[in-house]
Design goal:
With 470 residues, the protein is α+β, with helices and mostly antiparallel strands. The strands form 3 sheets. The protein has a 7-stranded mixed sheet with strand order 5-6-7-2-14-13-8, with helices on both faces. A 6-stranded mixed sheet has the order 9-16-15-12-10-11, with helices on both faces. A 3-stranded antiparallel sheet has the order 1-4-3, with no helix packed on it. The chain is globular and about 60 Å long. The relative contact order is 0.18.
């Protein structure tokens, strides 16, 4: 949508917001909240007008383009009815049927584009009982509105503690990879030299991947289909015991992200090998999302939107390209190597300056060739790798949405040109793993089976007994 230059000064869309809302790349986040009771539809309008819209002006804005080709946010009047969807399913009272209907519905809305003349969000209310919940509330939000950190903060502004709504929700403390300062000083010169080497290597690798000079093998998790982002998807959600994950973390002295990423990599390799013998050794990489704020917990929306905020609203993230360890033929292979290798690779990539230099490269690319060229770079980075992983921290306490208790929630990333996209979020005593997978290509139930199997294998290897809860 184009506007006249004479119009009032509008808020510019951030560079990353522009990259993620182009004709080449368009990403959105689908957050699924599971309620313990059916949602009271009479509260929908007040939820939107009194709670959701005031969170941030972008929820009442559309993206427009001025005469210079620059994208901006323009404030508009919002009709909540245009954004609230209440689907009607079969009257047959079957949780299995409604589970299938929910999966099909999420797949359908994932393929739908947002109207250009309306703000980039939708709320879908499904008042049919599924295996996991009495009702479902889906927030579909375009990624240009903000990253997972910002949008999680927005959603949490709508949610309250079930035990005491006047007390803020709390979150697990973030744990970073620790370093021994004395050893670091002793090895400062080798570290500088290795950092320089890996910085150059990672930057060249990033450019080679995005250009298609280096790409992952076609495999049971990467179809390589042209326009895969426009194909139907199937979604699955897996629950892991957060206490069990923490036991592994403590035993191995690693982070929760190390444990979960290593587990998913092992499960993925087990699935690949089961579907096609030998593919457990295929070239495969995952893009692991890294939030560049280096946060220690969520800030309130009020704090994020302040000028010069410490943790500002918007999109502040980058991708780390992490090789998925290959599956050895020997059954005696130590499964914990998947965690150790993940930890080592992520530590190495975080210590290099490639993230900084890649950001500078994208700035130059945008300056001389425009935002579409950067979108093309990002599209290639996604297209030529096998999978993507994004993770968020959820609240520790039980929460409610307008007095509707939330039993669980998860999120999916929609739009990347990949056959397998995974989102992780913690909530109370569970870690929820949700995957959006290419329909009729990846077998959803088998992928879920091998992911759960991998968790049990790693738990037994680390703790010495089988996990009692997955």
């Amino acid at each position: 949508m184009e506007i006249e230059e004479a119009e009032a000064v509008l808020e510019a869309v951030s560079p990353i917001g522009q990259y993620l809302s182009s004709s080449i790349v368009s990403l959105s986040i689908i957050a699924v909240l599971e309620t313990e009771i059916p949602f009271d539809l009479s509260q929908t309008m007040s939820l939107v007008t009194d709670v959701f819209l005031p969170i941030n002006p972008r929820f009442s804005s559309i993206m427009v383009v001025n005469s210079k080709g620059e994208k901006q946010w323009k404030k508009v009047e919002v009709n909540p009815k245009d954004h609230i969807k209440v689907p009607i399913f079969s009257t047959e009272n079957s949780t299995k049927l409604y589970d299938d209907c929910l999966g099909e519905y999420i797949s359908n809305i994932s393929l739908e584009n947002f109207p250009e003349n309306k703000p980039l969000w939708e709320i879908h209310i499904i008042n049919y009982p599924t295996k996991q919940a009495a009702g479902i509330i889906i927030f579909k939000l375009h990624h240009s509105l903000g990253d997972g950190f910002s949008l999680m903060g927005a959603l949490l502004s709508c949610l309250k503690r079930a035990d005491n709504p006047s007390i803020p929700l709390t979150f697990p403390s973030a744990q970073t990879h620790s370093n021994n300062s004395h050893r670091t000083r002793l090895k400062i010169v080798p570290k500088i030299l290795s950092s320089m080497y890996y910085t150059i290597s990672d930057l060249c690798s990033s450019i080679a991947i995005s250009s298609g000079f280096v790409e992952d093998d076609i495999s049971p998790i990467r179809s390589g289909h042209h326009g895969v982002e426009f194909l139907p998807t199937t979604s699955i959600a897996i629950s892991f015991s957060l206490d069990s994950v923490k036991q592994i973390k403590t035993k191995l002295g690693v982070t929760i992200n190390d444990v979960v990423t290593g587990t998913l990599f092992l499960g993925t390799r087990l699935y690949m090998e089961a579907m096609s013998k030998g593919s457990g050794k295929a070239r495969a990489r995952s893009l692991v999302l890294l939030n560049t704020r280096m946060f220690c917990g969520y800030k309130s929306v009020e704090e994020m939107v302040k000028p010069n905020a410490e943790l500002p609203w918007g999109n502040h993230f980058t991708f780390l390209s992490v090789p998925i360890p290959k599956l050895n033929g020997s059954q005696s292979q130590d499964p914990l190597q998947f965690i150790w290798k993940v930890r080592k690779n992520i530590q190495r990539k975080r210590s290099s300056l490639s993230v900084f230099l890649t950001a500078k490269y994208l700035q130059m690319l945008r300056k001389f060739r425009g935002p579409e060229a950067v979108s093309k770079f990002l599209h290639g980075t996604l297209k030529y790798t096998s999978m993507g992983i994004s993770n968020l921290m959820g609240p520790i306490e039980h929460m409610t949405l307008t007095n509707h208790p939330i039993s669980g929630f998860y999120f999916l990333i929609n739009g990347p040109p990949q056959s397998l996209k995974i989102g992780l979020v913690s909530y109370m005593d569970k870690l929820r793993v949700a995957a959006a997978i290419e329909k009729d290509f990846i077998d959803a139930q088998k992928f879920k089976f091998y992911s759960e199997k991998a968790f049990n294998i790693i738990f037994k290897a680390a703790i010495g007994t089988s996990s009692t809860q997955v």
